[in-house]
Specification:
With 272 residues, this protein is an alpha/beta fold. Helix 2 (17-29) crosses helix 8 (184-198). The protein contains eleven helices and eight strands. Residues 70-185 form the AB hydrolase-1 domain. GO terms for molecular function: hydrolase activity.
C-alpha cells in the first residue's frame, strides 16, 4: 500500500506538482489512530476540564487537582492523554497539580492533522491558560515541548522533561521517502514546501540545534535500544542542552512505562 501511494504521488507530481506536495504533506501529518478507546474512557472522562479553542480546533484538556506545583503533560504521536495514567497516579501521591490535553486529531480533540509547529502553537495556548511550572513530553510530545520553549521562551517555566524524543526531521523524512519510494526531486520540492510553510528546511528542523537556546533545567530519558526514536537523538540533544541531564535506560522500549523512570522524574521534580 505505501508503494502504491508513492506511485500515485509521483504521477500526480508530474501533472500537478503543488497538489502532489500538499497531498504528501497531509499524508505525513495524518495520524491513523490515537482516539479514545472504550477502556480509556472512565479515567479520562473523570478528569475532563475546559475545551480550549485554537483557531478552528477544539482541544480537550484534563485536570487532576493538587496543592503543589503545576505540571503539564504532552503526549506523543497516535496517542492521547491516557498514556500518562501511571505517571499521573504517581504524581498525585506528591500532590502535584496536573494538567494534560489531547493533541489535534487525537483523543477527544478535534482536527485531522498534527505536526510539531501546530502542536507547539496548541501547547502555547494551553500553557498560557494553565501556567505550568514544568512540562513533561513524550516522543513527538517531547519534540513539541523543546520546539515550544525554543520558539516562545516561556519565562514562567522551570523544568522540562523529555521522554524518548526524536531530534532530526531530516531523518524522519528520509524514512518517509524510503517507505513511499519517492524520488529525490519530489523530496527536494517537499522540503521547499515545508520551508515555505514553517520557515525551516528539513535539515534546519533539529531539536538538538533548538536545544542550544533552551536555558531551563532539563531531564532527558531515552532507551539505548529504542526502535522508534533512535538513541542518537538523545545524545545529540544532550550535547547541546547546557542544563540538561541524560538518563539512559536499557530494554525499556520507546514508551518507558517503568517504575524506575517514574521515580527518576519525581526525584528530578522534587530537587530544588
Amino acid at each position: 500500500m505505501p508503494i502504491l501511494i508513492g506511485k500515485q504521488l509521483k504521477l500526480l507530481f508530474k501533472i500537478a506538482p503543488t497538489r502532489a506536495l500538499q497531498k504528501a504533506f497531509l499524508l505525513f501529518c495524518t495520524p491513523r489512530k490515537g482516539q479514545v478507546t472504550p477502556d480509556q474512557m472512565d479515567f479520562l472522562d473523570a478528569a475532563e476540564d475546559e475545551v480550549v479553542a485554537v483557531d478552528d480546533l477544539l482541544l480537550q484538556t484534563y485536570r487532576w487537582k493538587g496543592s503543589e506545583e503545576t505540571i503539564l503533560l504532552v503526549h506523543g504521536w497516535e496517542s492521547n492523554t491516557h498514556r500518562w495514567k501511571g505517571l499521573i497516579q504517581v504524581l498525585q501521591k506528591h500532590k502535584y497539580n496536573i494538567i494534560a490535553f489531547d493533541a489535534p486529531a487525537h483523543g477527544y480533540s478535534s482536527g485531522n492533522i498534527l505536526n510539531v509547529p501546530l502542536y507547539a502553537e496548541c501547547l502555547k495556548k494551553v500553557a498560557d491558560l494553565y501556567r505550568p511550572n514544568h512540562i513533561i513530553g513524550h516522543s513527538v510530545g517531547g519534540m513539541c515541548t523543546a520546539f515550544y520553549q525554543h520558539t516562545y521562551q516561556n519565562p514562567e517555566l522551570d523544568k522540562l522533561i523529555l521522554l524518548a524524543p526524536p531530534s532530526e526531521l531530516s531523518i524522519i523524512m528520509n524514512g518517509y521517502q524510503k517507505t513511499l519510494q519517492l524520488t529525490d526531486a519530489f523530496m527536494n520540492a517537499l522540503d521547499s514546501y515545508f520551508k515555505a510553510q514553517f520557515g525551516y528546511s528539513f535539515e534546519e528542523f533539529s531539536i538538538a540545534k533548538f536545544s542550544q537556546k533552551i536555558k531551563n533545567s532539563g531531564l532527558l530519558i531515552h532507551d539505548k535500544y529504542d526502535d522508534i526514536a533512535p538513541y542518537a537523538a538523545a545524545t545529540a540533544i544532550d550535547a547541546n542542552w547546557t542544563n540538561g541531564t541524560l538518563m539512559t535506560t536499557e530494554n525499556y522500549g520507546h514508551s518507558l512505562f517503568y517504575n524506575e523512570v517514574d521515580e527518576r522524574i519525581v526525584d528530578f521534580l522534587n530537587t530544588k
